[in-house]
Amino acid sequence: MKPGCAKGPPSGPAARDARSRSVTGPERSEPGPRRRTAVGRLAVMRALLVVNPAATTTSARTRDVLIHALASEMKLEAVTTEYRGHARDLGRRAADSDDIDLVVALGGDGTVNEVVNGLLHRGPDVDRLPKLAVVPGGSTNVFARALGLPNDAVEATGAILDALENRTERTVGLGLAAGTPGTEDESVPERWFTFCAGLGFDAGVVGRVEQKREGGKRSTHALYVRQVVRQFLNEAHRRHGQITLEVPGQEPVTDLALSIVCNTAPWTYLGNRPVYASPKASFDTALDVLGLKRLSTPAVALYGTQLLTSSPEKGPRGKHAVSRHDLTDFTLHSKVPLPFQMDGDHLGLRTSVTFTGVRRALRVIV
Description:
Belongs to the diacylglycerol/lipid kinase family. The chain is of the alpha+beta class.
């Protein structure tokens, strides 16, 4: 659930050294020799590579190898992100350009989220917008892995080049969240997410992990588990939920202590183990919701075990669990401000969020 977020590199000599080993500023590489029999097919493709130098699992040397591999197959412009939001700005530039066919995001889920929000800043248009490819470089890489890509940057790059040569792609649905009209959050701008969002407990965990990362801790699964425990011990509303799920045409579901919105399955990974909060969620449908009405010690033991042993056929279930599948429009309201996250990026406190599931929003190379 907690991907490497799209933050800029740290300041000082370490940052300067990282940037000097990667690609700094726009760098254009002329296409190299064509691969196998598809002579000239990729040589005319124009691609923008967005590189997050702070990505958790890729070294500067690995990034350089990947950049040269991609540049040998297409006309490539590689840009290293230098501040939070830079990947979004680059995605926006690509969306508004007439000479970019493909955007490749090299980083974690936070980098991917920023690129997607830049690409879709005017809304989805699968026939006009550049395609997206993802090279996993974060700690979890949920979006890339949910697409079926290897969780290794070098292997994923090879898979992407094969997919480009074979012209294989997928049009995926995405989630859109915005402040709810008529509430104190109505001015919050809309934002896209690729695999999940959460209001309440899980977003609190994400916030704690981000604080630790900003303090110099490395994003690991052990760090995440520790923050889950601390969030549980300090959760003020775990016995009496504050969240209401409202779906048009249905009775509201009240008193939720946790709410997770999934655009695909799995919801996250613990190491190599996929975790399914909403097993039916898919890039081919709208959005799924999992809500839990209690987070008491027995309830957490039950649902935590169910999550850890979940599968594509079986997720959390029981009298305090609420599941909804393929929702196009719905709203989560809270009686008090609660933490909110999207794609593992903590976005502060919210009292009301309106969600839309948008099918066929973006073309992705797989």
